Amino acid sequence: MKYTLHQLQIFKCLVETRSITQTAQVLNLTQPAISIQLKNLQNQFDLKLYEIIGKQIFITEFGQKIAESADEIIKQVESINYISSRLKGQLASKLRISVVSTGKYVIPFFLKEFLDQHPSVELILDVTNKAKVIDALESNEADFALVSILPSKLKVESIPLLKNRLVLVANERFEIPPEGIRLQHLVHLPVILREKGSGTRETMERFFQRNEIQLKKPLVLTSNEAVKQAILADLGISIMPLIGIKSELDQHLVKVIPCKGLPIETQWSLIWMKGKSLNPVAKAFIDFLMLEKTGIVAKKFGWFEETGG
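RE: above sequence
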């Protein structure tokens, strides 16, 4: 076996994103470079790591086990580097961030340059739903959280990073009636919701209440990826964060449906507990964001301002 740490890192990212395009974006590599490294890794094994069906990537059971092992290997290497850097007096500590599930399309771009500048920093990034993110912040399991709705019951400080625009999304084959789609039509259409505890679900529920929309039998799914797969399978439509469907829009697998009253806009913000004693790495990350966030948004999210109304 001659697989490399770099190949394992790429495969682990592929498992998380289920997209070569997004893996390339997260790791700041070209798609051909990602494909070559994945092919070289696959050549080390007789069993398939993943399969491509249509335009979708599916991780095999064997691939999942390799990804879990890769995660452990990467953590061990990071631990060794962390100890070495501390002894040399470099900025080295853990940076613990808890992110709502759709935030995984946002936070990597605000971390990349910072981690490049401070290679000895050990990043611990937990991706879950909003309820668990807030729990992690309150219990001090995370230094920061990335949310699209500020918690009402916690005293926090925040840095606004990026608009969060929620749009009506359907399969590319969805036929828009001649008169267009109005909010009242949603009552008669199969609408897909996220689970309770999701920030997207909370935003949708508030929106429906304001507009007196009572859904009949919504389909409830537990992740942004599951919602996308359901839309691709023509199970229904949904109101989704635009930031999470770039790959599918680029591939013309889904489309944004114009609808009066949409998009809904919230704000992606990095938050931390008011009065929390931040370690040097956390303080350095705040300083970095204050200086660089505007440039990162312009460079990495320019497409976002041009899509979805």
